[in-house]
Design a protein that fits this description.
The structure is a single chain. With 730 residues, the protein is α+β, with helices and mostly antiparallel strands. The chain folds into four domains: 38-63 and 217-298, Penicillin-binding protein 2a (Domain 2); 73-208, no CATH class; 302-597 and 652-714, DD-peptidase/beta-lactamase superfamily (Beta-lactamase, 3-Layer(aba) Sandwich), CATH 3.40.710; 600-645, no CATH class. Helix content is 41%, strand content 18%. It has 28 helices and 22 strands. Strands 2, 3, 4, 5 and 10 form a five-stranded mixed β-sheet that branches. The protein has a five-stranded antiparallel β-sheet with strand order 12-11-22-21-17, sandwiched between helices. Strands 1-8-9 form a three-stranded antiparallel β-sheet, with no helix packed on it. Strand 2 and strand 3 form a beta hairpin.
């Protein structure tokens, strides 16, 4: 009996020993690395994120436009922002070690420590508001936005894992962002930093950390082009092409380009984050350096753009009721864009402060990047392209003459030549070259009805947008493709497809067709060189830009069009002769006076409150109207009517408002530069836009960039004598 009990005791001892050995083996061998890392991490500080510098933006001559500069941000841990219970418990355990809670019973100390944590977080927001001057509501809105973006990322990762077969609830998805500190105030001043240190940081919930800010130099002339920075959105985080890269993916609240070059070159400008791990004594245990973003050198000449903007501003001021102007300058050979001016503009540093004023300026529209974002009826600057469309289709014989009697039909009160509106004699017989020189409407009405709207549109789209359809352009999000309607689009919009009258209008650059100033400049670069190329805004961006010859157009056809453009500027009687002809430069170009509808500048809004009360407000924008309503009521917009148009509408024949265009290239013998400019509601292209064009050519010749050397211009002028009497301008 005794021996049996002894055996049982011995077996029990053996089993316990085996269990103990197995457990030690598990802890020290199987899970040794895990527990070793845990013990080491207890002696380490939280990992630090090393942020890269965003790439600089420079002009073509290396002048710095925008760069990152040192700054300081106020950051808060995500556990505090999201009020995560687990993180709040960690903070509560720290609070329990405070002297005031040590002697309390365990349950009471736990309860009180949790209350203190929540009270301190609530007080932190109030104190931060006082120290920074930012309203508490705005701080909390920023907090909520950060949380929304992190949770959107969590949802995205959960869906991605679910698609790969992982079965876990969304809340179990762990993100690096959960353990990070996020910026709630960026680029705080030294005064605010000092106030936060003294007033707010008692609980250790805030931290002021080194950061960077985007610093813009004197870039008002290129304000639209450079663009703006903003905080990354949840949609951008979800669509980020490198969202699976821990070092490159967007973090909630991170700055990102939202417009202009800042957005177009985002993937080149952004860098890669680094990481630094230190122990409690501050020694670096591990470090991966950040990689700064790539610098971008634009093709834009800042000095040229600044002077060009001044010329345009003076033209707008001198020709009321003009609302703005734009000009694009392109290198014919490389298609580098030397200038994209748009006036009026704005001061980038005052954008946020004056946003409401800028937004509500419905006449000047200073936020609009006219050079690429505004589509205008091109008017007569498109006549050379219409001629090439007629030649390429085989319908037009350029040597044949069309009789201009001042009107297309004797018994129809429409389809006049511009000479009729000015009570001038008709042009008489016109061949292709003469029709371009004198901008004869009757010739091009005839051409348009013979070629037809469909063939004109097909050719226009090919030459203005290129074989690729203009989908890439210069990659700016603001860039529009122009409007060249299809038969199906017109059937959808007005119930009927192309008509004979459409062909007439389109040959004159009127009707539904619209182009941007950049497209117009590239068109004249194409006419100068004989081939289409996509324009470029970034030097050495690696994009292939092959040349495409114009289908059905021979060298002789192009020479004929260029001769017409030469005569338009350099031979008396040409519509640009008085305004654009130069003594030391042979310019080829075309004027245009494009009929345009006045824009709505004010609306009469009718709102209805919940109590049935209605109120009418005359305002320029919906936001301005809503700001004038009683904020204590909930208002619903019922209707809006036009209250004012600008410029004021005039009645009578020849009273239509017109945009003044000039487009051309120079020098004639070896074209180097193409220019297109438009003065909104400026009136006559020959009287208003052509003289501005002459100032642009003078500016290019005087530029240190050497874009137009005078020697070549003088040589060309010597071979082109002037003849024919002068006449009024288109």
């Amino acid at each position: 009996m005794f021996e049996r009990r002894l055996v049982i005791l011995l077996w029990c001892a053996v089993i316990c020993a085996v269990g103990l050995i197995a457990r030690l083996f598990q802890l020290q061998v199987l899970q040794g690395v895990y527990f070793r890392s845990m013990s080491e991490s207890a002696l380490e500080r939280p990992p630090e994120t090393l942020f890269p510098l965003r790439g600089r933006i420079l002009d073509r001559n290396g002048i710095l436009l925008v760069s990152d500069e040192p700054a300081y941000d106020v950051t808060i841990h995500y556990g505090v922002l999201s009020m995560d219970p687990d993180y709040l418990n960690v903070l509560a355990r720290r609070v329990r070690r405070e002297p005031a809670l040590r002697d309390l019973p365990a349950a009471e100390a736990t309860r009180r420590s949790r209350e203190l944590v929540r009270e301190r977080i609530a007080a932190m927001w109030v104190q931060l508001s006082r120290a920074s001057g930012v309203p508490t509501a705005e701080l909390r809105a920023r907090r909520d936005e950060i949380c929304r973006r992190v949770e959107a990322l969590r949802t995205y990762l959960w869906r991605a894992r679910a698609n790969r077969g992982f079965d876990e609830p969304p809340e179990d998805v762990r993100l690096a962002e959960d353990q990070m500190r996020h910026s709630v105030l960026r680029d705080v001043s030294p005064q605010v930093r000092a106030a936060i240190d003294m007033q707010v940081d008692e609980a250790g919930l805030l931290r002021i950390e080194p950061s960077v800010r985007r610093e813009a130099r004197d870039i008002s002339p290129v304000c639209h082009l450079i663009g703006r920075m903003g905080e990354v959105s949840a949609k951008q985080m979800e669509q980020d092409p490198v969202r699976d890269d821990e070092r490159r993916r967007y973090l909630p609240g991170e700055p990102v380009g939202v417009s202009g070059v800042e957005r177009a070159a985002e993937q080149m400008l952004r860098g890669e984050r680094g990481m630094r791990q230190k122990d409690l004594d501050g020694r670096v245990l591990q470090q991966t350096d950040a990689r700064d973003g790539r610098d971008i050198r634009l093709t834009i000449d800042l000095a040229l753009q600044k002077q060009l903007s001044e010329i345009l501003s003076q033209a707008v001021t001198a020709h009321p009721p003009s609302t703005g102007a734009s000009c694009a300058v392109i290198d014919v050979r490389t298609r580098e864009v030397l200038a994209l001016a748009s006036v009026p503009g704005f001061e980038p540093g005052a954008y946020n402060e004056k946003y409401n004023t800028l937004r509500d300026d419905t006449r000047g529209r200073p936020l609009l990047f006219r050079a690429v974002s505004e589509e205008y009826p091109p008017g007569s600057i498109l006549k050379p392209l219409a001629l090439l469309a007629g030649i390429s289709s085989g319908v037009i014989n350029p040597a044949a003459k069309v009789e201009c009697r001042g009107r297309l039909f004797d018994n129809v009160d429409a389809w006049f030549c511009w000479t009729q509106w000015r009570e001038m004699p008709p042009h008489g017989p016109m061949n292709a070259v003469e029709a371009i020189q004198h901008s004869c409407n009757i010739y091009f009405y005839t051409l348009g009805q013979r070629v037809g709207a469909d063939r004109l549109m097909d050719f226009y789209r090919l030459v203005l947008r290129g074989p690729g359809g203009g989908t890439d352009g210069i990659s700016l999000v603001e860039e529009r493709r122009g409007y060249m309607p299809t038969d199906a689009e017109l059937k959808s919009r007005r119930g009927s497809g192309f008509q004979v009258t459409d062909g007439r209008n389109y040959a004159l650059g009127q009707g539904e067709i619209q182009v941007t100033p950049l497209q117009a400049a590239n068109l004249y670069a194409t006419l100068a060189s004989g081939v289409y190329r996509d324009p470029t805004l970034v030097r050495d961006d690696g994009r292939a830009r092959p040349a495409f010859a114009l289908p059905g157009v021979s060298a002789a056809d192009l020479a004929l069009v260029r001769e017409g453009l030469y005569r338009c500027v350099n031979v008396a009687g040409g519509t640009a002769y008085e305004g654009a002809r130069m003594d030391d430069m042979v310019v080829c170009g075309k004027t245009g006076s494009a009929q345009a509808v006045s824009r709505v500048s004010e609306w009469k809004y009718t709102y209805e409150a919940r109590d049935g009360r209605t109120e009418e407000v005359i305002a320029r924008t919906p936001e301005e109207a809503q700001a004038r309503l009683d904020p204590g009521q909930t208002w619903e917009l019922r209707s809006r009517r036009v209250a004012e148009r600008w410029p004021p509408v005039e009645t009578g024949r020849g009273k239509d408002r017109t945009h003044a265009w000039f487009a051309g290239f120079a020098p004639r013998e070896d074209p180097r530069i193409a220019v297109a400019l438009v003065i909104e509601y400026g009136g006559s292209g020959g009287k208003v836009a052509a003289p501005v064009g002459r100032r642009v050519w003078e500016l290019l010749m005087d530029s240190p960039g050497g874009y137009l050397p005078r020697d070549a211009a003088l040589e060309g002028r010597a071979r082109r004598p002037v003849s024919e009497p002068a006449q009024d301008l288109e």
